[in-house]
Amino acid sequence: MATLTARVVPVPLRFGGGRHIVERNFLLYRRSWVVFLSGFFEPVFYLLSIGIGVAQLVGDFTLSDGTTIGYAAFVAPAMLASSAMNGAIFDSTYNIFFRMKYAKLYDSMLATPLRPWDVATGEVTWALLRGACYSAMFILVMLGMGLVESWWAVAALPASVLIGFAFAGAGMALTTFMRSWQDFEFVQLAIIPMFLFSATFYPVETYPAAIRWLVEITPLYQGVVLERAFTTGTVSWSLLINAAYLAAMGTVGMYVASRRLGKILLK
Asked: Are 92 and 167 in contact (CB under 8 A)?
């Protein structure tokens, strides 16, 4: 009897167990590649509409260092940051909620040697890989349209992954507090204003001083600053602050998500 018990009791999994979650999601989406690819087109359509249409009606922009760029080149990096945010939020909120509340997927996973931290790291890693694919293709479109002004753009892809990490971690943590689908209205209530007002379509300097500080502390603004600096070549040491903000946001979010998953599913 002792021998049988030793065989069925799960043993701790060594670090890196989240890779099994990534493999599971890859096998799932391999049969649904059209759904996977569809997430790439929305930001590209935004970019094309602005680059071909609106940009013809708006004059050039002068950046803080005196560099003058076209409106499409000004908006494109913000679209890249927004794309990374939206992809991460979708994967780490709606998908996670369905798997947790309805499919009961995580209950099954935690009956194996997988731990809550493995589930959190696996789902966030998958969101990052998916977002990185979209961002890489988006950057290629920017290059094809002549919207990249500097060789620093090679850092735009890692920056988009960092943006995705921040929102994926925070999104998964918030999802563990969701009670029903109606609660996701609060997610949209936060995402849409950030998309519209995080210096996406016009410089942050155009805001009144009383509002500007509020914009500058939002997470998407940090991502927009990073992407715009890299694609236009206006790089400075202050970008480390923006990067640290996003890294801290993602790390805290993952920690909270893993603790909450353990509390909800292992009670």
From this structure: yes
| Whole-angstrom distance, CA of residue 160 vs CA of residue 164 | 6
According to DSSP, the residues that pair with 21 across neighbouring strands are none
pTM: 0.84
Q: Which of 72, 66, 86, 176 is nearest to 127 (CA)?
A: 86
- Angle, alpha carbons 198-89-133 (nearest 5°): 95
CA triple 185-187-188, angle to 5 deg: 65
DSSP 58: S
CA dihedral for 127, 150, 232, 47, sign (positive or negative): negative
Residue 261 contacts residue 176 (beta carbons within 8 Å):
yes
Specify whether the CB–CB gap between 51 and 76 falls below 8 A: yes
pLDDT in tens, 235-258: 889 999 999 999 999 999 989 988
DSSP, residue by residue, 18-47: THHHHHHHHHHHTT-HHHHHHTTHHHHHHH
